[in-house]
Design goal:
Blueprint (H helix, E strand, L loop, with lengths): L1 H6 L3 E6 L2 E5 L9 H31 L19
Antiparallel strand pairs: 1-2
């Protein structure tokens, strides 16, 4: 999943138990509407990439008789414009 983040120019901020916290538009915050939109699109595309990857992994694990897993995506966005 980390590679999905990196492929979309995101940064893995930290791992929390089984979660990956990723951020986009860093280390220099985007300031224009166009750049902020690009960051948001990259984040959504990353989530979609992760869903595809997890589906592939689940198929492999199921074939091996291993348990499968599910994922959830949460987003938080705080922007203060002065």
């Amino acid at each position: 999943m980390s590679q999905c983040v990196l492929n979309r120019n995101g940064v893995v901020d930290k791992f929390i138990d089984d979660a990956v916290m990723a951020v986009f538009g860093v280390p220099i915050p985007s300031t224009t509407s166009e750049d902020i939109t690009k960051d948001a699109i990259a984040a959504v595309n990353c989530a979609l990439d992760m869903a595809v990857k997890l589906h592939q992994l689940n198929q492999e694990w199921q074939e091996k008789g291993l348990p499968t897993v599910a994922m959830r995506i949460a987003s938080g966005l705080l922007r203060v414009l002065w």
